[in-house]
Design goal:
Helices cover 37% and strands 21% of the residues. The protein has 496 residues and is of the alpha+beta class. It has a five-stranded antiparallel beta sheet with strand order 13-14-15-16-17.
């Protein structure tokens, strides 16, 4: 009885397996019949993957799954789901060429839905960067830009919808010219564009500013690893960044340790240059040690010969890194009211400073924006190893457009120690008869150095970081969140 029951159960199991296999074969046959009942057309696909950073001699292959496609999705001409299993290039640009036969009713390629499936037993998977897919159909090329990473999803999920590892679950790319949303007439294309924006906003969330200051918002994710994949550096660039960051930290730690040791032994004073010639010698030694470009070293050495002159000082302000901050003045700002009477030799024989000021021949560069910058406070001893205070100096410079000499020249500098309570100081050019070792000449030179240092901080914080990085970041994120790939402005801005 027991043996008969075991045999009966085995027979039932076999019957169920045969029925499941028959149902599967029947489904495949029906799908094949639906395709074969129509004429087919050849579609040649050129799949561009990988990245040109870095350009390694050996091309690494991506083997974590296969690509899945639907031609003209969400339309009556949608093709059946089809797959491409190839060894795609992962670390440098390359392409794979494959041919597919699809029902003729699919017709001209207009949209392409792209996703990536993982191998069934794959646990650790890598996202694949797809640059573009080109389809050759009836002797005509159709380009589908992608420029995004796709993460291989579980093949049991037939239509993935979740964002994973900063990658969208799929991409729908449109062929042809870019169009504005208002001009899009095809309902399927319009729906695909809106779906793309929905996915973008889902994994690129925005945190509007709620503070008292009128400043832009920012992305909610502040941890680099959680950013969308397309916003991250290429792997090689990220590795290089981390390596340089580690080297920088090691150099800082070594310097701080050396400074702390000097403090322990009572040498809490940094070394000073005894002459500009000593600084020039040290610069050449550092250039050789770090293997600087020789042409750059020669340029610096040539500038060192005349950098102390007022003409070179003006040239660097007007043609240097921060040239757009000079403005005309016809009266002195309130911060200059304590300025003592200007020495007569500064303006020249018979020239009155106030008259030239009212005539509009005076110009100024100020660094008042540094008012909001702190001096580092208790952090400075930790960062440097020294207990010396850090100085934030404010510097303003007045320039005179001299009609007699036919040039712009500095006539006064105001310096203020922001972190102290001392009164501001005012400095003027020396007399032509003063030597380069005189107190007047060196004081004016030092005032110019302090002013240039202050103006450099304005350039680094405001001109460069805020106006070239922080502001542009807002537009970059807004582009990804608000403009689909088919939008003309997206195609214009994305490469930048």
């Amino acid at each position: 009885w027991y043996q008969r029951r075991v045999r009966a159960r085995a027979a039932v199991a076999v019957t169920e397996a045969e029925e499941a296999a028959f149902a599967k074969e029947k489904t495949v046959a029906i799908n094949a019949k639906s395709i074969l009942s129509h004429k087919v057309s050849a579609y040649v696909m050129i799949i561009h993957t990988g990245t040109n950073n870095p350009a390694l001699d050996k091309i690494e292959k991506w083997e974590d799954g296969r690509m899945s496609f639907i031609l003209n999705p969400e339309t009556p001409r949608a093709s059946p789901l089809f797959h491409v299993k190839e060894l795609f290039a992962a670390n440098r640009e390359s392409n794979v060429r494959v041919s597919k036969f699809l029902p003729e009713y699919c017709g001209e390629p207009e949209q392409l839905k792209i996703s990536v499936e993982s191998n069934k037993l794959e646990i650790i998977k890598e996202a694949l960067f797809i640059r573009e897919i080109t389809i050759l159909y009836k002797h005509k090329f159709y380009r589908f830009p992608v420029s995004d990473y796709l993460y291989p999803h579980n093949p049991l999920l037939m239509d993935p919808q979740d964002v994973y590892d900063g990658c969208p679950p799929y991409v729908i790319s449109k062929c042809g010219k870019s169009t504005f949303l208002a001009n899009e007439k095809d309902p399927a294309v319009l729906a695909a564009r809106l779906k793309e924006l929905e996915l973008r906003r889902k994994h690129l969330d925005w945190a509007p500013n709620t503070g008292p200051h009128v400043i832009p918002g920012f992305t909610k994710e502040i941890v680099y690893d959680k950013l969308p994949r397309f916003l991250k550096f290429k792997n090689a660039r990220q590795k290089a960044f981390q390596l340089n960051l580690k080297r920088g930290h090691n150099m800082m730690k070594r310097t701080v340790i050396e400074n702390k040791i000097s403090v322990i032994f009572g040498k809490d004073t940094p070394e000073h240059f005894k002459s500009f010639k000593e600084f020039e010698t040290l610069f050449v030694e550092l250039a050789e040690e770090h293997q600087y470009d020789l042409a750059m070293v020669d340029d610096v050495l040539s500038v060192m010969k005349y950098w102390k002159t007022d003409d070179e000082f003006v040239r660097q302000e007007l043609a240097g890194i921060n040239p757009a901050r000079i403005y005309k003045i016809t009266s002195l700002p309130e911060s200059w009211t304590a300025m003592p009477e200007m020495p007569s030799h500064v303006m020249g024989e018979g020239v009155n400073f106030k008259e030239e000021l009212a005539a509009g021949r005076m110009f100024m560069i100020d660094t008042n924006l540094l008012e909001v910058v702190g001096d580092g406070g208790v952090l400075m001893p930790i960062l440097t190893g020294f207990s010396l205070p850090m100085v934030v100096s404010l510097g303003d410079c007045i320039y005179y457009n001299d009609p007699i000499q036919g040039k712009l020249r500095p006539v006064a500098i105001r310096l203020e120690y922001k972190n102290g309570e001392q009164a501001p100081t005012f400095w003027y050019p020396p007399k032509p008869s003063d030597s380069e070792t005189s107190h007047e000449y060196l004081s004016w030179l030092l005032a110019k150095l302090y002013f240039r240092s202050s103006n450099m901080q304005i350039h680094a914080i405001l001109t460069h970081f805020v106006r070239a990085h922080a502001v542009v970041e807002v537009f970059a994120i807004a582009m990804y969140r608000c403009l689909p790939k088919q939008h003309p402005l997206h195609k214009l801005l994305q490469p930048h």
